[in-house]
Structures are given as C-alpha cells and as structure tokens.
Hints:
The chain has four helices and six strands; from the N terminus they run ββαββββααα. The protein is α+β, with helices and mostly antiparallel strands. It folds into two domains: 2-38; 41-145, Sufe protein. Chain: A. It has a four-stranded antiparallel beta sheet, with helices on one face. Strands 1-2 form a two-stranded antiparallel ribbon. Strand 3 and strand 4 (49-52) form a beta hairpin.
Amino acid sequence: MEELNGSKQSYPNKIVTYKMKRTALILLTAAFCLQASSQVMKQDAEQVTTINTTSLSDEVWGYAGPVPVKIKIDKNDKIQSVVLLTNDETPGYIRKVQKMFLPRYKGMKVKDCLKRQPDVVTGATVTVNAIKENVRRGLEYYQKNKEK
C-alpha cells in the first residue's frame, strides 16, 4: 500500500478515486455548458431580446483571445446595441472599437446586418473581424430561435 494524502490507499483504490473525480469533472462541465446555452437568449418584459455570444463562439478569437458580445434586439428585429463582454484585447483598440465601430450596429435590421455588416475600424482588424463573427453567430442564433 502507498500513502496518498496522508492515508494509505491501494493502487486499485487510486484508480477508482481518479475515475470518480474525472466523472465528476465531466458532469460539472456538461452542467455548465447546459446552463450557458440556456443563457444565450433572453427576452425582457419590453420584448427586447438579449443575445450573449459567449458560448456560441468561444473559438472565435481576436488578437488576444475570445471577444464575446451582448446584442440587444427590439421587438421589430432592430439592433438596439452591441456591447463587448469581458475580453483580453488591447484597451486602446477596444476603446476605439467601442466608440467608432459598435455604434454602427444600432438601428440595423437583423436580416440586413446578416447580409452586410458595418465596415472595419482601421488598426484593429483582427479584433473587429472576431467581433463581426460573434455578432453574425449571435444574429443567426436569434433568427433560428426567436418566437415566430
């Protein structure tokens, strides 16, 4: 018998303990994913729908990592706002994107935005392209899942 964490445990018991921990981790991960997917789209009392792209495009990276967005869409399918969520992009570029790029989405119809998104801000192309992809995925999710 070997000593493990101050207690004696046989080799087969170590394997059982490892498998139990691994199974628990897998179940927790699955539960988190289910919770995240159920929080992708919400509608408030004023019929404004909010799309959170965090779980829709975690593999879509800007320059320094994922750049998820929150999209607000009114009952007439017009975008009210696109807001960046927590990210690791360069703060200077993010300020420029927030000031000069994200406001361009306001007032656009969802179907029009899916056909043609606003132009890119110079100097932050990788970040803006990732944001545009996040917006596209969010709007596609909205189109597929909105109440008809």
